[in-house]
Q: What sequence folds into this?
C-alpha cells in the first residue's frame, strides 16, 4: 500500500470519522504515505452523498467531493452498535498507530470509543479528536459544522459583511479543510512525543478554535477592547481608489492604488475620463477622499462599460496596481496553480485532476490519488490483516455487524 | 480541552530543545514559528535593524484601532529577537553560526531575495545538512508568478476564487479579515516542518519543506475547486431571502441577530424541526413532505420559516433548539466570543503575563500531554542581541566589534 520513501510510510491510520475536517486530515496523512482505513457505518459516511444533499455544492456527474476526501483510503463497513463489530474493531485498533474520530463526546462514550477505552487496547495509540466546540463545556456535544462552528460562532461571518448587509457566506468546507491542517499538525506532534516517550496520547482540535485562530487579529483586538468598523459597501467606499468595481461581464476588479499622486492621471486616462485630472473635486488625495462617493460613481460607470479582459489589458498597460479576483473556474487552468502544486493529476479516469494538500516537501512527493473506495470494499482484506480468521469473519457477517 | 481534573502531566513540551530561526516577516511564516514556540521550541527571530514591518501593522487602517500593539503580542510571542542587517557582509558569520546549530529555519523572502541574500536551501545545506528549511511564498517556488509578493488578501483569497465564491448572487465579492488566510496557512507550515523533522529522525537528513498562500487558499476552497477542475456547474450563492435550500439558510431573529440553520440531514430531522419551532402541522403539509419538495419549494418554505424565526429572540431559539440535535448556530460577534464560555472550555484563549495585553489567542492544537507555554511581553527589536551572540561563543570584545561594524543596525 505504501512507498517507503514517504515520511509517513508504515503508519496505520483508522479514520473513524465523517464529513470533512477529520477525514481530510486522514487524506493528508495518506498523501504522505500512511495506510488509511476508513471505518464507516453500514450506510456509509454521509459525505458520500453531500454533493446531492447540499444545494451549495457545485453539481457534477462525478462524486468529486467524495473522491477528494477519500482518496487512497480503504473502506471497512462495520455496524459499531453491534458488540461483535466493536470486538473486531479492537483487533484493528491494536494494530493501528493513529485513530481519527469526530463523534461528539456523548456518542464516543456510548460506542466505547473514548480515548480511555482505546488506550486500554493500545497504549501506543495516538487518538486524534475533532469536535465542533471543544471537549468540555456546555456545547461540547453539539454537532458542529464549519459554517456554524468555524465561521459563524467565531465572529468571522459577522466581521465579513458589508455595513448593513447580510453576514458573509463561506464556501463549502472552507473551514473544515483549514482545520484539517491543524489536526495533522497535532498528530505529528504526538508522533514526536511517542518517539521520545514510547507512549501514545490524546490530541485534538475544534472547528471553533480554528475559526478564531484564523481571525486571530480581530479576536486579539477584541481581547483588548478594540473592534473593527463595519466595511462600507463599494458604492460609498472610504477611498474610491482602494475599492472594487464590477465590469460589464460581471467580474470584479480590486483597485489598490497606494501611490495616488503618481497614478491618479494615468488612471483617469485609462478609464477614458481624462477630464477628471483637472476636476477640482478630485484634485488631491484629500479632495478625492472627501468626494469618494462621487468619484466611485464615475469609476463604477466607467468600469461597467467594458469587459474584464479589456480592463486587465488597459490597467496593466498603464501600470495601475489591481488585485485579481479569480472565479473558481479560472483556477484549475491557472499555470501558477499548477506551479505551486495545488492542482495535480490523478489516477481516477473520470476525475483526472484534483487538489493536492498544500504541504510541499523537497524529499518526497504526495501519492497520486486513486479512486475512493466503495462502501465496505476492503472488509475481508482489512480484517484478515488484523488477524481475524475466515471463520471469525464469517461469524461477523452472520451477526449482521458487517455486510 | 479545559483544565483536566487530574494533575497536569509533567512531561516536557514536545518541541523542547528544538532551535528555530524565524527569518521571516509579516504573518503566515512568523505565526508558524509562534506555534512551534507555544509547544516548547526556542525561537530566535532575526529582524532587520528597523524590525519586522509587522510591528507597525496595528496602525494600519484595516486593523481595529487600539493604543496597544495587540497583533504583535499574537505573532511575536515567545520569541527572542536578534536584530541583524543581513545586507552587511559581516552579519553572515553570525548568521551561519546560528544556522549551524539550528534545527529549523523559516524564511519568506521571494526567491530572488533569497538568492541575493544566499539564503536558498542549496546555500544553506552545506552549512547544516540536518536543517529543516521551510519557505513560505505567495504563489509557489516556480512558475510565472513565483517572485510576486503575495499577501493573504491577494494570494489566498483573491487568486484562489474564495472571494468570488463567497459572494451573494449579484453582490460584490466577499470580504476577508486581516491575516485570516495567513493564520490558516501557518498550520500547514507547522505540519510541513514536523514532517521534515520526522524524516530527519528517520534518515538523519534535513531538507526543504514549504507551502504557498495560493495553495492554501485553493485547499480551503478545495470542494469548489475540485468541482471546477472537472467542469462542475458552480451555483451562485442566493441571498438569504431567496435560498436554494430553506433548511440551510440564515434567518433574522426578533433581536436582529442572524440564526444559521444547517439541517443537512433533513431526511431525519424535518419532523424534529417542525416540532421544535412549534409548527407541527408543517410536518404533514403536503407541500413539504419530502426532501425534493422542500428543495423545490425553498422560497415558499423560507416564506413560512422567516416570520417564525423573526418572532423570537436568538436566546429563545437557543433554548428551543439546543437539545433537539438540529444543527444551528448564531452569527457570532467577536465582541461576544471573547466572553463565550465555550471558547474558554475549548482552550481558545490564554492568559499572558503581559499587563498591556493580558489575554491572547491560543493556537488551535490541543495535546493531552502538554499545554502551550504562557507568553509574556513580545521582544523589542534586538532585545536579545547580546544574549544570543554570547550563546554563539562571541566575547564581549567581539560583540562590540560587530556592533561597531553596523551588523546589528
A:
Amino acid at each position: 500500500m505504501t512507498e517507503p520513501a514517504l515520511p509517513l510510510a508504515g503508519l496505520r491510520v483508522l479514520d473513524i470519522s465523517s464529513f470533512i475536517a477529520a477525514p481530510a486530515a486522514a487524506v493528508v496523512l495518506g498523501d504522505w504515505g500512511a495506510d488509511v482505513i476508513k471505518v464507516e457505518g453500514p450506510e456509509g459516511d454521509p459525505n458520500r452523498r453531500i454533493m446531492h444533499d447540499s444545494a451549495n455544492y457545485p453539481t457534477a456527474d462525478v462524486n468529486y467531493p467524495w473522491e477528494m476526501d477519500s482518496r487512497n483510503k480503504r473502506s471497512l463497513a462495520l455496524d459499531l452498535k453491534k458488540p461483535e463489530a466493536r470486538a473486531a474493531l479492537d483487533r484493528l485498533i491494536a494494530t493501528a498507530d493513529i485513530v481519527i474520530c469526530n463523534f461528539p463526546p456523548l456518542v464516543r462514550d456510548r460506542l466505547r470509543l473514548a480515548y480511555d477505552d482505546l488506550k486500554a487496547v493500545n497504549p501506543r495509540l495516538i487518538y486524534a479528536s475533532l469536535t465542533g466546540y471543544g471537549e468540555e463545556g456546555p456545547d461540547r456535544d453539539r454537532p458542529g459544522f464549519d459554517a456554524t462552528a468555524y465561521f459563524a460562532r467565531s465572529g468571522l461571518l459577522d466581521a465579513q459583511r458589508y455595513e448593513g448587509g447580510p453576514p458573509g457566506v463561506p464556501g463549502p468546507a472552507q473551514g473544515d479543510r483549514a482545520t484539517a491542517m491543524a489536526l495533522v499538525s497535532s498528530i505529528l506532534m504526538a508522533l514526536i512525543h511517542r518517539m521520545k516517550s514510547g507512549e501514545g496520547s490524546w490530541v485534538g482540535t475544534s472547528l471553533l478554535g480554528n475559526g478564531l485562530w484564523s481571525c486571530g487579529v480581530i479576536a486579539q483586538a477584541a481581547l483588548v477592547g478594540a473592534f473593527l468598523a463595519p466595511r462600507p459597501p463599494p458604492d460609498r467606499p472610504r477611498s474610491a481608489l482602494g475599492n472594487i468595481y464590477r465590469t460589464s461581464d460581471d467580474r470584479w476588479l480590486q483597485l489598490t492604488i497606494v501611490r495616488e499622486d503618481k497614478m491618479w492621471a494615468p488612471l483617469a486616462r485609462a478609464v477614458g475620463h481624462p477630464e477628471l485630472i483637472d476636476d477640482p473635486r478630485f484634485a488631491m488625495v484629500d479632495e478625492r477622499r472627501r468626494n469618494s462617493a462621487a468619484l466611485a460613481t464615475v469609476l463604477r460607470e466607467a468600469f461597467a462599460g467594458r469587459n474584464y479582459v479589456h480592463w486587465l489589458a488597459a490597467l496593466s498597460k498603464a501600470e495601475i496596481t489591481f488585485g485579481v479576483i479569480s472565479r473558481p473556474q479560472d483556477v484549475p487552468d491557472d499555470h501558477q496553480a499548477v506551479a505551486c502544486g495545488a492542482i495535480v493529476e490523478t489516477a481516477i479516469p473520470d476525475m483526472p485532476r484534483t487538489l493536492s494538500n498544500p504541504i510541499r516537501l523537497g524529499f518526497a512527493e504526495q501519492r497520486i490519488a486513486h479512486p475512493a473506495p466503495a462502501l465496505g470494499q476492503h472488509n475481508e482484506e482489512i480484517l484478515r490483516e488484523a488477524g481475524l480468521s475466515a471463520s471469525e469473519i464469517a461469524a461477523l457477517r452472520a451477526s449482521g455487524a458487517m455486510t | 480541552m479545559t483544565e483536566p481534573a487530574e494533575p497536569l502531566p509533567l512531561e516536557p513540551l514536545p518541541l523542547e530543545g528544538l532551535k528555530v530561526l524565524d527569518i521571516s516577516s509579516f504573518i503566515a511564516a512568523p505565526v508558524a514559528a509562534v506555534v512551534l514556540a507555544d509547544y516548547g521550541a526556542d525561537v530566535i527571530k532575526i529582524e532587520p535593524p528597523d524590525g519586522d514591518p509587522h510591528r507597525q501593522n496595528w496602525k494600519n487602517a484595516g486593523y481595529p484601532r487600539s493604543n496597544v500593539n495587540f497583533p504583535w503580542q499574537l505573532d511575536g510571542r515567545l520569541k527572542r529577537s536578534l536584530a541583524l542587517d543581513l545586507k552587511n557582509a559581516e552579519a553572515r558569520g553570525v548568521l551561519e553560526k546560528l544556522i549551524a546549530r539550528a534545527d529549523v529555519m523559516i524564511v519568506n523572502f521571494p526567491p530572488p531575495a533569497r538568492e541575493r541574500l544566499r539564503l536558498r536551501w542549496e546555500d544553506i545545506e552545506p552549512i547544516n545538512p540536518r536543517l529543516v528549511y521551510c519557505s513560505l511564498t505567495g504563489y509557489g517556488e516556480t512558475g510565472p508568478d513565483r517572485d510576486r509578493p503575495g499577501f493573504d488578501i491577494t494570494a489566498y483569497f483573491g487568486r484562489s476564487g474564495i472571494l468570488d465564491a463567497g459572494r451573494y448572487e449579484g453582490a460584490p465579492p466577499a470580504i476577508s479579515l486581516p491575516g485570516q488566510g495567513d493564520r490558516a496557512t501557518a498550520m500547514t507550515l507547522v505540519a510541513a516542518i514536523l514532517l521534515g523533522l520526522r524524516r530527519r529522525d528517520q534518515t538523519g537528513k534535513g531538507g526543504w519543506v514549504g507551502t504557498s498562500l495560493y495553495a492554501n487558499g485553493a485547499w480551503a476552497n478545495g470542494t469548489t475547486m475540485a468541482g471546477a477542475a472537472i467542469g462542475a456547474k458552480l451555483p451562485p450563492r442566493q441571498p438569504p431571502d431567496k435560498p436554494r435550500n430553506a433548511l440551510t439558510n440564515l434567518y433574522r431573529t426578533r433581536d436582529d441577530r442572524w440564526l444559521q440553520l444547517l439541517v443537512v440531514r433533513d431526511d431525519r430531522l424535518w419532523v424534529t424541526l417542525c416540532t421544535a419551532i412549534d409548527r407541527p402541522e408543517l410536518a404533514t403539509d403536503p407541500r413539504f413532505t419530502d426532501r425534493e419538495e422542500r428543495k423545490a419549494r425553498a422560497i415558499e418554505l423560507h416564506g413560512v420559516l422567516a416570520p417564525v424565526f423573526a418572532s423570537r429572540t436568538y436566546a429563545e431559539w437557543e433554548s428551543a433548539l439546543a437539545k433537539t440535535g438540529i444543527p444551528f448556530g448564531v452569527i457570532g460577534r467577536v465582541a461576544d466570543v471573547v466572553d463565550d464560555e465555550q471558547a474558554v472550555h475549548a482552550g481558545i484563549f490564554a492568559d499572558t503575563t503581559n499587563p498591556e495585553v493580558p489575554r491572547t489567542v491560543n493556537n488551535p492544537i490541543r495535546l493531552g500531554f502538554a499545554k502551550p507555554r504562557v507568553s509574556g511581553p513580545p521582544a523589542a527589536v534586538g532585545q536579545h542581541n547580546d544574549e544570543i551572540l554570547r550563546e554563539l561563543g562571541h566575547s564581549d570584545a567581539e560583540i562590540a566589534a560587530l556592533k561597531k561594524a553596523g551588523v546589528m543596525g
